[in-house]
Amino acid sequence: MTHKFIEPKAPPISDRSVVGWMRNNLFDSPLNTALTIIIAYVLLQFIPLVLDWALFSATWVADSDACKAGSGACWGLINAKWRFILFGTYTYDEHWRPFVGMLILLGACVGSTIPVFWKPMRLLLLWVVSSVLLGIIMWGGIFGLSYVENTLWGGLPLTLIIAVYGTLFAFPIGILLALGRMSNLPAIKSFCIFFIELIRGVPLISVLFMSSFLLPLFLPDGVNIDKLLRAQVGITLFTAAYLAEVFRGGLQAIPNGQFEAANSLGLTYWQSMRMIILPQALRLVIPPTVNSFISMFKDTSLVVIIGLMDLLGTVKSVIKDPEWRIFYAEGYVFAAAIFFFFCYSMARYSAYLEVELRKGEGH
Predict the structure, then answer these.
(1) Which DSSP string do the residues of 176-228 spell out, in sequence order?
(2) Range(s) of the domain holding residue 160
(3) Strand (E) positions, the chain?
(4) What is the tens place of the pLDDT at every residue in 61-71?
(5) pLDDT higher than 80, residue 101
(6) pLDDT value for 12
(7) pLDDT at 14
């Protein structure tokens, strides 16, 4: 018997190389190849114009006359107004306080993403201490700090406060609403269904309007609820209604065998939910949950209709200045970059969390 030897072939291009990635994602079919070429051509025509406007021909000095004489972007607007854009009408000489407040708030958010803090008491202690420090820094009135009413808060700190605490309180409320909607108790189930469908059936701007203008009409004389608190409650309940449906989808995706296993172990309803069902359900709905948080973070810009000056509100206020009015695009681009940074950070952490929580599953 004769043996025929096959000539060795060159090893295939690694899928992890740049060439392999391009072959698998950009040129894997005639249609994708054509689309890649068309998009590359458009980008080659468009990107140089953007770079010229944004960088090469841009004006960076805080002088509106120099900006008007230039042909590119006027980043002098940001140079001249960045403190007002970021901190709003907060006392100018004490802008260090909202800056430190932002660091405290962001530090608490980052700490909450570290597994070492994923214990109920540790998280509670982290947020209680952070909230107390934030209140002291922002309001003042003690430790030699002058008192600053929250009607003067604005810009990025206000946006972060509304978004972060809206997320913090909407999450547990959404879980309770989801469990209530799936409850066998008619009264609780009916209330949760009514609340969820009512809130989801109206736009956020209506919820903010009702919480700010209609709610005070039903309060007794002399009773006044802070405007920021009303906005915070409105956004929290609105987000909780949407999260409730997200969580309900996760709960319904859990096989019945998990519920039966919990019952066979003699666990109570709340024990089985806390230790078996909810951890699995919440892991399944990480992408839509974070999507709701991102949507809520951007929707904080609607608080301007009730007189609160968030980040987008301060930008709008700046471009109303006749001296800088024609450079509105630069203001919105600056605000968009800040929103994008925070939203993209949440999206990337969501992807990381999915991978981390799926380790050990065998796929």
Answers:
(1) HHHHHHT-S-HHHHHHHHHHHHHHHTS-HHHHHHIIIIIGGGGSPTT----HH
(2) 154-249+289-357
(3) 154, 309-310
(4) 988 889 888 88
(5) yes
(6) 59
(7) 56
**How many distinct structural domains can be found in the chain?**
1
Q: Is the residue at 60 inside a domain?
A: no
| pLDDT average, residue stretch 320-337 | 91
Residue 52 included in any domain: no
* pLDDT at 160 (0 to 100): 95
CA 110 – CA 33 distance, rounded (Å):
41
Token code pair at residue 101: 């407040």
Per DSSP, 154 falls in state: E
* Residue 241 phi, psi dihedral angles, 5° rounding: -65, -40
59 forms beta bridges with 74
pLDDT digits (tens, 9 = 90+) for 164-203: 999 999 999 999 999 999 988 899 999 999 999 999 888 8
Distance CA 314, CA 81 (A): 10
- Residue 317 forms part of a structural domain: yes
pLDDT tens-digit profile of 223-240? Answer: 677 888 888 988 999 999
Per cent of the chain over pLDDT 70 is: 93
What is the per-residue DSSP string for 297-342?
Answer: HHHGGGGGGGT-EEHHHHHHHHTTSTTTGGGHHHHHHHHHHHHHHH
d(CA 159, CA 153): 10
Q: What is the CATH number of the domain that holds 231?
A: 1.10.3720.10
In a domain, 137, yes or no: no
Task: List the helix and strand counts (H, then E) for the chain.
Answer: 16, 2
Counting every residue, how long is the chain? 363
Long-range contacts of 101-110 (CB under 8 A, 24+ apart): 101/134, 101/137, 101/138, 101/157, 102/156, 102/157, 102/160, 104/130, 104/133, 104/134, 104/137, 105/130, 105/134, 105/157, 105/160, 105/161, 105/164, 106/160, 108/164, 109/164
Question: Which one-letter amino acid corresponds to residue 146?
Answer: S
